Amino acid sequence: FTLGDMAGAVYDEPPCYWQGYIIRDILSGKYGPVTVDDQVMKWRGNSVEFIDGVIALTEICTWAVFHVSNHNFAAKYLTGMPRPEEVAYAVAAGEIRQKHVPDQLYTNIMKLNLNHAVDFTAYPDGSPRHPSYPAMHSAASNISFWLQVVLKPTAEQICEMKKIDYAVSYARTVAGVHYPQDNKAGLKLGQEIMKRELPHYLSEKFHGDEEYIREKVEKVSFNWDEIDPADICDNLSYS
């Protein structure tokens, strides 16, 4: 991926687009054997189910996006964080004075020769028109949490889940539409909402053991602040 490829990969893509790839790859056995947690969801045999496999996991993914989005947008409008393009253009246009901007940042912005705010981004129409913080792409991309609850994943599978979540999240900063802080906040918000909503949903929808699931969500939860993307696959295991 080039930087342009990264930005384009998270431009107007459908919900669960990239997460669908990791679901497909994991269920195909690309990253090792697949074991469902039968106290969360039951499969009839040892092989990957179709309806209770790819269909069910895709439903969970879109359900998660829907539930997270309501909370995320409430947080966006509560915070009211301006988009990077708004701040950059305000600096370029002199609305934010040079004395209020770190020297190197000011120099970098002025080198861009911005004619319009949207020129700061990788997209022809610029950023979405809602506030920046927390990032919706990040909040919606929490497959590295909920898929750990549904499956008994291998360390490699967990690694790939976290890589896809981080990549989807950070690519929006590469595109110039989010600050890095938006990404971390979104990833953490998405996980917290799923911790609260997942046990009842999986119990109601797939007849899982709700109390067991409540215990498991605590066991598999993790802090994105402690994840170093350069070492995202180190010491990842679950049993």
The portion of residues assigned to helices is 55-70%
What is the first-to-last residue Cα distance?
A: 33 Å
**Structural class based on helices, strands and sheet pairing:** mainly alpha
How would you characterize the largest beta sheet? none
SSE ordering = HHHHHHHHHH
Mean pLDDT: 92
Total number of strands: 0
Strand content: under 5%
Structural domains: how many: 2
Sequence stretches where pLDDT stays below 50 over 5 or more residues: none
How many alpha or pi helices? 10
Rg computed from alpha carbons, rounded to a whole number of angstroms = 20 Å
Shape: elongated
GO molecular function, one term: peroxidase activity
Protein name: Phosphatidic acid phosphatase type 2/haloperoxidase domain-containing protein
Organism: Helicotheca tamesis
Summarize the structure in words.
This protein starts with a helix and ends in a 19-residue tail after the last helix. It is mainly α. Helix 2 runs antiparallel to helix 3. It is 57% helix and 0% strand. The longest helix is centred in the N-terminal third of the chain and has 30 residues. The protein folds into 2 domains: 175 residues, no CATH class; 43 residues, no CATH class.
Which features characterize this protein?
single chain, 239 residues, mainly alpha, 2 domains, 10 helices, 57% helix, Br/Cl_peroxidase_C, PAP2/HPO_sf
Can you describe this structure in just a few lines?
57% of the residues lie in helices and 0% in strands.
